[in-house]
Amino acid sequence: MSFIADKQTLEDLNLLGRFKPNSIYNLFSRIKTTGGEQLLERMFQQPLTNTAAINQRSATFRYFQQKQLTFPFNGVSFRQAENYLNMGGASSLPAILKKRLNAFLNDDEYEKLLTGLKATIGILRTFRKFLQELSDYNEAAAWRKTLSGISWLDSDRELTLLTVARYDRLLRHTLRHEMEQLLEAVHQLDVYIAVSDVARQRGFHYATALPSSPSVFRTTALRHPALDAGVANPVTLHSDSNVIFLTGANMAGKSTLMKSFGIALYLAHMGFPVAAADMEFSVRDGLYSSINVPDNLNMGYSHFYAEVLRVKQVAAEVSSGKNLVIIFDELFKGTNVKDAYDATLAVTAAFARYRNCFFIISTHIIEVGNALRQYANLQFAYLPTLLEGTKPRYTYQLKEGITSDRHGMMIIENEGIIALLNN
């Protein structure tokens, strides 16, 4: 079973996108090889749901972070080696002899083969030397065994036509499967070294995955991974307190906190480092968010109706019995205050009954919070706004309770909008 995160959620949290400069994928993409890029993309697209597999991958990243290794392969040489090992066409001794002996035949193919062979020999030598630094890494034993079987790697003998034919046949035919495994090993090392470097540079940590039951999420310091000076907050959820009802003024940091939570949970299911300290979590079946729900002009959907359909979709998933994490930012902001109050109250109360799921629900309609106090499994939190004269200052530090801040009109007045129109 694969971890569930639909297109809306991936876009809300800005998780994917090699060419999106602010995406979480791009934050980790310090990859040197094409195969490493492809492996990183697969990891992002396929988070894990097996507790042991998640913790094993985290342990691998942690190992490489402690080693602080530098990726030893030259990008150009490695691409030449990869292209050579994946070349098609005849490469047997008779075929090469025929090419060389035929004076009318263009020799470019042979020169390309020779360049690729030399690059491959260089890569294999580098790999064997690099493995000396991985003496305590379990997977390295099989790689060393393969490389030890190629005794001529250290030979500086001249690459005659016959030697080229013999080496070529050995690498691209006899040991083809082993070479594919070694290439894949380099791709893995590329990802492990790159991701662990990011973790070390940005002060990320590794979460501990727990079985799906009982439901637990706990961290002492959660922040957004893309913010260099992000404020960290503690967040705790469990089956007896599985809903965070979040309030706060505009710009107080509600959306950033919710995104931080969703991103940390997603990365943790990948076994990746997270921008959260002392984090442990019960493995979930998936993650759904409703943060930036667009209207749909082609379907004739207003913004409010698009919100309703999103909530309906999530409700169907929750009611099916899956262990999910749900993030709702400003429920029903596309309708009038009375309907938004009634709908937010009813939907939050209904979702709260599903103790196997976690919810973070934010709203500007703070009156809903008082009506929800009867539900023991809700925790109320807010992000405060401090006034310095008539200027608001945001601490981004989570507090217990429901906000009483109402500073929207003050911000409008500070910007001089009414005065501008009156003039």
Question: Describe it for me?
Answer:
The protein is α/β, with parallel strands linked by helices. It is 48% helix and 14% strand. The termini are far apart.
Summarize the biggest pleated sheet: 6 strands, mixed
The side-by-side strand order for the widest beta sheet comes to 7-8-9-4-10-13
Radius of gyration: 28 Å
Q: Roughly what is the average pLDDT, rounded to an integer?
A: 87
**Number of separate structural domains:** 2
Helix content: 40-55%
Q: Please count the beta strands (DSSP E, at least 2 residues each).
A: 13
CATH structural fold name of the largest domain: Rossmann fold
Number of helices: 16
Spell out the helices and strands N to C.
HHHHHHHHHHEEEEHEEEHEHEHEEEEHH
Query: CATH homologous superfamily name of the largest domain?
Result: P-loop containing nucleotide triphosphate hydrolases
Keywords: ATP-binding, DNA-binding, Nucleotide-binding
Protein name: DNA mismatch repair protein
Domain DNA mismatch repair proteins mutS family: 241-422
